[in-house]
C-alpha cells in the first residue's frame, strides 16, 4: 500500500499536467488558425474552442497580449495555475485538490507555447472533464496494480511454499519420526535447507538429536552395567561373607604379626561386604541415607592411610595426616571412609603413573558451621577433560583405565550428608580436594 501511494499520487499529478499541456497545445493550434485567416465567422470560432476544450485563448506575442478566441464563460474563474515553473509538490497538491473536489470549477491555465510560437499562452477551461479523465486514469492504474499484486502474491506464495513450508514440513516429519525411535541414529536430521536461518535450525536440531541419541545409548549401557554389577555384587557379597568367617578364626592366632594385621583384614572385608550391599541398594535407587554418629576422624584417616601404604610398594611416595586427635565429627563413618579412600587412591594412582616422587596429605579443621577435610597431593594435576566432567559418571576419567565412577559416587555420598565435595585447585604443583560437612542436622 505504501508503494501504491508513492507511485499512484505522482502518476495522477503527472497525468493532470499532461492533460493541461495538451489543452494548451490544442488552444495554440486554434489560435494559429485564427492568425492564418483574416476573417473567421463565429461558428468556426466556436468549433475551434470546442475542439480545444476551452472557453477562450490568450496568446502573448512581442510583449502584446491578444485575445485570439473567446466564448461566454459560465462561471467566474476561481483559480489560476501557472505550469511554466510549477514544482513537483505543487503539481501533486493541485492534482489532489482537483481529484477530491467534486464541484466543477472554471480555472485559468498559463503555459509556454510550443515551438517558440509566442511568450505565453493562457486558456480558460472547466475542471469537470479534467477530473473525470483523472478518475478514469486512476482506475486503470488501480486495476494494473491489482493485477501486479495478484501476480506478486502468487509468486510469493509459491516461493514461501518451496523455500519455507516444504523444508519446515520436512523438519516436522523428521521430528515425528525421530520421536518414535530416538535411539535410531539413521533418523538424525541431515541439514539441507537453502535458507540460512532454517539451515541453522536444522543444524541445531541435528546436534540435539545426536546428543540425545548418544545419551540414550549411554543410559542403556548404564542400565545393562547396573544389572551386571548388581549380579556380581550379590555373588561377591556371599564370597566375602565366607571370607569373613575365616578371619574370625585368624584373630585367635598367637602370632604377633597376625594379631596386628587381623583387625585390619577384618575391617577391610567388612567394608567390602558393606560396599556390595550398598551397590545392590544403588542399583535399585540411590545411595542409602547416611547413619550419623559421632566419631574421631583421625581413626578413619589412619585406616585409609594404612590401607593405601600396602599398595605403594617401592614407589617414592609418602602419606601423612594432619588431624587433631580430639577432632570428632558427626557423619556416617563407612561412607566418609569411602570418600576419603577414593580421593587418596586417586592421588596415589596419579603420582605413581607420573613416575615422580610425591606426597599425599590428609588434613582437617573445624569452623563454626562445618567441618572441612582436605586431601592434597603433589601429583601432575587433573587433565582439562577430567576437570570439565569431574563428577559425571563415566566421563570424568582422570587416569587411563578408570571408569569415572569414583568421584561421582564420592560427591553423591557427601551430598547425602548435606555437604559438598569441591576441587579447590589443580595444576602441575598438585591437586587439592575439600570435603565440607555441615554441623547442622540434615533437613529431609
TrEMBL record:
Lineage: superkingdom: Bacteria
EC number: 2.7.13.3
Catalytic class of the enzyme: transferase
Keyword Amino-acid biosynthesis among record annotations: no
Parts of the chain that traverse the membrane: 141-164
Keyword terms of this UniProt record: Coiled coil, Kinase, Membrane, Phosphoprotein, Transferase, Transmembrane, Transmembrane helix, Two-component regulatory system
Residue span(s) of domain Histidine kinase: 231-441
Coiled coil: 198-225
PANTHER family: SENSOR HISTIDINE KINASE YXDK (PTHR43711:SF28), TWO-COMPONENT HISTIDINE KINASE (PTHR43711)
Gene3D superfamilies to which the protein is assigned, alphabetical: 1.10.287.130, Histidine kinase-like ATPase, C-terminal domain
Alphabetized Pfam families for the sequence: HATPase_c, HisKA
GO molecular function, one term: phosphorelay sensor kinase activity
Natural source organism: Roseovarius aestuarii
Catalytic function, reaction form: ATP + protein L-histidine = ADP + protein N-phospho-L-histidine
UniProt name for this protein: histidine kinase
UniProt-listed InterPro entries: HATPase_C_sf, HATPase_dom, His_kinase_dom, HisK_dim/P_dom, HisK_dim/P_sf, Sensor_HK_Regulatory, Sig_transdc_His_kin-like_C
KW Coiled coil (keyword) present: yes
CDD domains in alphabetical order: HATPase
Amino acid at each position: 500500500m505504501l508503494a501504491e501511494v508513492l507511485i499512484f499520487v505522482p502518476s495522477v499529478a503527472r497525468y493532470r499536467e499532461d492533460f493541461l499541456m495538451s489543452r494548451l497545445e490544442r488552444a495554440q493550434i486554434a489560435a494559429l488558425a485564427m492568425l492564418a485567416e483574416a476573417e473567421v465567422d463565429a461558428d468556426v470560432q466556436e468549433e475551434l474552442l470546442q475542439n480545444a476544450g476551452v472557453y477562450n485563448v490568450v496568446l502573448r506575442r512581442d510583449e502584446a497580449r491578444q485575445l485570439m478566441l473567446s466564448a461566454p464563460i459560465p462561471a467566474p474563474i476561481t483559480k489560476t495555475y501557472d505550469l511554466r515553473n510549477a514544482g513537483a509538490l505543487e503539481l501533486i497538491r493541485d492534482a489532489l485538490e482537483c481529484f477530491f473536489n467534486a464541484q466543477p470549477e472554471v480555472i485559468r491555465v498559463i503555459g509556454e507555447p510550443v515551438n517558440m510560437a509566442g511568450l505565453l499562452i493562457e486558456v480558460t477551461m472547466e475542471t469537470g472533464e479534467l477530473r473525470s479523465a483523472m478518475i478514469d486514469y486512476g482506475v486503470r492504474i488501480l486495476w494494473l496494480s491489482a493485477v501486479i499484486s495478484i501476480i506478486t502474491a502468487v509468486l510469493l506464495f509459491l516461493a514461501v511454499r518451496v523455500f519455507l513450508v516444504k523444508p519446515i514440513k520436512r523438519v516436522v516429519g523428521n521430528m515425528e519420526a525421530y520421536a518414535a525411535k530416538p535411539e535410531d541414529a539413521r533418523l538424525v536430521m541431515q541439514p539441507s535447507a537453502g535458507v540460512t536461518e532454517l539451515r541453522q535450525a536444522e543444524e541445531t536440531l541435528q546436534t540435539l538429536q545426536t546428543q540425545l541419541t548418544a545419551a540414550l545409548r549411554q543410559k542403556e549401557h548404564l542400565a545393562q552395567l547396573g544389572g551386571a554389577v548388581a549380579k556380581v555384587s550379590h555373588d561377591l557379597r556371599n564370597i566375602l561373607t565366607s571370607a569373613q568367617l575365616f578371619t574370625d578364626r585368624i584373630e585367635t592366632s598367637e602370632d604377633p604379626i597376625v594379631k596386628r594385621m587381623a583387625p585390619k583384614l577384618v575391617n577391610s572385608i567388612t567394608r567390602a561386604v558393606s560396599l556390595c550391599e550398598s551397590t545392590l541398594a544403588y542399583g535399585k535407587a540411590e545411595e542409602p541415607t547416611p547413619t550419623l554418629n559421632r566419631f574421631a576422624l583421625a581413626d578413619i584417616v589412619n585406616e585409609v592411610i594404612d590401607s593405601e601404604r600396602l599398595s605403594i610398594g617401592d614407589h617414592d611416595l609418602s602419606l601423612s595426616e594432619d588431624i587433631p586427635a580430639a577432632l570428632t565429627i558427626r557423619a556416617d563413618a563407612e561412607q566418609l571412609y569411602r570418600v576419603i579412600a577414593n580421593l587418596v587412591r586417586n592421588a596415589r594412582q596419579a603420582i605413581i603413573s607420573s613416575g615422580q616422587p610425591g606426597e599425599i596429605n590428609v588434613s582437617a579443621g573445624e569452623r563454626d558451621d562445618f567441618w572441612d577435610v582436605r586431601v592434597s597431593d603433589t601429583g601432575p594435576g587433573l587433565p582439562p577433560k577430567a576437570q570439565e566432567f569431574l563428577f559425571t559418571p563415566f566421563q570424568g576419567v582422570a587416569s587411563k583405565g578408570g571408569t569415572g565412577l569414583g568421584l561421582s559416587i564420592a560427591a553423591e555420598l557427601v551430598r547425602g550428608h548435606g555437604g559438598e565435595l569441591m576441587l579447590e585447585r589443580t595444576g602441575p604443583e598438585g591437586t587439592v580436594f575439600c570435603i565440607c560437612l555441615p554441623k547442622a542436622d540434615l533437613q529431609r
